[in-house]
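Hi P.,

Sorry for the delay on this. The queue was packed all week, but I finally got your sequence through. Input first:
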Amino acid sequence: MTEETTKTTTTSSVQTVSPERAVVKEYKRKGRNSNVSGAIILIFIGIIFLLNNFGLISWDIWGMLWRFWPIFLIIGGLQLVLGKSLFSNIVIGVITAILLLGVLSASLIATDSRFETYFRQQLNRIEQPGQRPY
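Then the structure:
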């Protein structure tokens, strides 16, 4: 493993810093303004617009999605509680993705009969343990 040397400004001594520590220090220096959940939310909204434009989902989904606006408060509260560390960004990103996928699934089931039929068939298959899956 190679080491990189840096000079401190207060003393003339030379410190050796491993590349891993240098990456973590760089993340801490630059990463304080990163907002993983905000990026995931923007991607989520963009995907919904794209699916709307291709006609794969109805524009009626926006009315259903609007009912879940408190999720944004929950995500913001999690960011305040957990802070801006690398670990908390990963945890918040995963939680945000799971919540948004759940909201999208519930909205699709409520607004599109094709998805509702599909999910009902899948649930019926799960509830009948004696049948073969395929």
